[in-house]
Amino acid sequence: MNIIAIETATDICGIALIENGTCVKKIEKQIPRKHAEQLPLFYETLINSSIYNKLTIDAVAVSIGPGSFTGLRVGLGFAKGLAYAKDLPIIPVPTLYALAMSAKFNEGSVLLYSHRDIVYIQDFEANKTINNPKATEWKNID
Does pTM surpass 0.70? Predict the structure, then answer.
């Protein structure tokens, strides 16, 4: 399965091409509050790559949060438009789950800074979620 993956839940805006479970092309940059401007340009760069032209895209994956409210809306809107235009399914990916899987640990907590003193936290064990994500203040973390 070949997937275009979109990440806009944090200050990092990114798009990637996944070929049968392996990332073959990734474009990302830390650009707070510039996702709406940069994501279409990243997509254009991706589709103009020689790797993209050899593949048939099967789905669009997109981060669904928690994360930056505006960033998530940008990513979800872009994913929905792309999926609609190309008649592709959308694969929703929870942000904290994606972070946990990329860290490749079997047990622990994933934290994501939100704003001010607020973080999102979720616990994982054996690559599965133990609880739902919650927002809390830094000082409340054990």
Answer: yes
Residue-level pLDDT, tens digit, the chain, 142 residues: 999 999 999 999 999 999 999 999 999 999 999 999 999 999 999 999 988 888 899 999 999 999 999 999 999 999 999 999 999 999 999 999 999 988 877 789 999 998 889 999 999 998 899 999 999 999 998 7
Contacts of 63 (CB under 8 A, 6+ apart): 6, 7, 8, 9, 72, 75, 93, 94, 95, 98
Mark whether 18 and 70 lie in a shared domain.
yes
Q: Is 85 in a helix, a strand, or coil?
A: helix
Tokens of 6: 């979109």
- Residue span of the structural domain in which 124 resides: 96-140
